[in-house]
Design goal:
By secondary structure, the chain is α+β, with helices and mostly antiparallel strands. The chain has ten helices and 14 strands. The strands form three sheets. Strands 1, 5, 6, 7, 8, 11 and 12 form a seven-stranded antiparallel beta sheet that branches. Strands 2-3-4-10-9 form a five-stranded antiparallel beta sheet, with no helix packed on it. The chain is elongated. This is Cytochrome b561 domain-containing protein.
């Protein structure tokens, strides 16, 4: 589905502007494409930590730009924007261009691989046609604040910037550093700050992510134009690239915690808990030891897996500097975790506390039915939670794009298989009810001793899961 979306995006971009773009290290929420204005002018250094000036119209045409052949530079595209880098001696010219996928609010890039402590250049258009450039930094994944003395001062290039058309671009120059493989982060928002002030309040980005630019790359005729990413330097156009290069970016520390969180929670909630429910459903009428297996799986095996799994998720949020319980996945995760402990306590209560209706009348009390329904509800919610985790939460929190379709296929198989297998176990209900009836029939001294023993032993435990 992600691939189809990117293909449709590329076709739309090609129709609207006549030329997509490619990149081999696009990173973020989705695959890449981009447009840029042409820039035959070479970058010239000047400027301060922030700037506001009026942008003069610049062409977004796809004509050839042979003057750049042999120079050093690179282009990378994401779902919402492209970043082009052109090395010019002691400076680097960066072009940030919207792909027209969403309304342009502001665009940003930072020098680093995480939002925390990466020097950022944030730019946005103003209602009077001017552009604001703001250099900021953040200690974590919070709104970055203005830096009065940045390590490298960026200079807005108004003559190379263009706010017209479907693919506005904003260009700046910055002194080059010693990095050849330049790690960067990017961000795109569809909400304009509504102020030209360099310290204006920013609304959280629509998408963001890490990627890399190869500043040692020699530009050839078939290279993407770093000043006009929708075309090559020869002026030809081609379909937009995907973010296939995203997998080459190493996982960040908080992302590794997310992966570990996902693995443990999937094992605990989607394998151990369903297995415990199936043991109770299938073995209760055949072996008096079914409860021992059920009890061990749901408590002694799942608990040491689920608790660390949830803890790793909380640790990942803290490590990223993000806000806890800031979205539905986090809130549902805590809710399911609480229900899991309620279920454990209820199971132990049913096992240890036997009301008169159970010990004398041999009839199942209401809490046993509730225990069964709650257990199945937790498993159902867990399926939903896992899916939102790899389909929504992972790309939103990491900017690395969606998980491969293999996870989606496995999820669909599992979400069908578990209910079907459990439903098949309901075929043993007549046998179960017969055993329970024999246990209640005290007037029949010839009743099967084996059945009574089995029934008595499985009654000394939660009845259902």
């Amino acid at each position: 589905m992600r691939g189809l979306s990117l293909l449709l995006l590329g076709l739309c971009a090609a129709t609207a502007f006549a030329a997509p773009q490619d990149s081999d290290s696009g990173k973020g929420r989705g695959g890449g494409d981009g447009n840029g204005g042409d820039a035959d002018d070479q970058p010239s250094p000047s400027g301060a930590a922030g700037a506001t000036s009026t942008a003069t119209p610049a062409s977004n045409s796809t004509s050839s730009n042979s003057a750049l052949l042999g120079m050093k530079g690179d282009t990378v595209c994401t779902q919402y924007l492209c970043v082009g880098a052109l090395v010019n001696g002691s400076t680097v010219q960066y072009t940030l261009q919207s792909l027209g996928v969403a309304k342009l609010g502001w665009m940003a890039m930072g020098f680093g691989q995480t939002m925390a402590n990466s020097p950022m250049v944030i730019m946005w258009p103003n209602s009077d046609g001017s552009i604001t450039l703001s250099q900021r930094q953040a200690p974590a994944e919070v709104m970055p604040t203005l830096v009065s003395s940045p390590p490298r001062v960026a200079t807005l290039e108004t003559s190379l910037s263009s706010l017209s058309g479907n693919n506005p671009k904003m260009v700046y120059n910055i002194p080059a550093n010693s990095d050849v493989s330049q790690g960067i982060i990017w961000a795109f928002s569809d909400t304009n700050p509504g102020s030209s002030a360099q310290d204006a309040q920013l609304v959280q980005h629509l998408n963001s992510g890490p990627t890399k630019l190869n500043l040692g790359n020699t530009l050839a005729a078939n290279s993407r134009d770093p000043t006009n990413p929708i075309s090559t330097l020869s002026g030809s156009t081609s379909p937009p690239p995907t973010d296939s290069g995203s997998s080459s970016i190493p996982l960040l520390p908080y992302q590794k915690l997310i992966v570990a969180h996902a693995i443990l929670c999937v094992i605990g909630f989607l394998f151990i808990l369903p297995l415990g429910a199936l043991v109770a459903r299938y073995l209760r009428t055949f072996s008096p030891v079914w409860f021992k297996g059920h009890h061990a799986l749901q408590l002694f095996i799942s608990l040491p897996i689920i608790v660390p799994g949830v803890a790793l998720g909380i640790a990942a949020v803290h490590k990223a500097g993000a806000k806890h319980l800031s979205d539905d996945h986090m809130k549902w995760g805590i809710a399911i975790f609480v229900l899991y402990f309620v279920q454990l306590v209820l199971g132990e209560f049913i096992h240890l506390v036997k009301p008169r209706s159970w010990t004398v009348d041999k009839r199942r009390p209401p809490q046993n039915y509730f225990h069964a329904v709650l257990g199945l509800l937790i498993i159902a919610l867990s399926f939903y939670q896992v899916r939102t985790g790899f389909r929504t939460e992972w790309p939103q929190q990491t900017g690395r794009g969606s998980v491969g379709n293999g996870a989606n296929i496995v999820w669909y198989i599992w979400v069908v298989a578990i209910p079907v297998i459990y439903a098949a176990g309901l075929l043993f209900l007549p046998r179960q009810y017969k055993q329970e009836s024999m246990s209640r029939n005290k007037g029949n001294p010839q009743e099967s001793s084996d059945s009574e023993e089995m029934t008595a032993r499985y009654r000394d435990s939660p009845d259902r899961h």
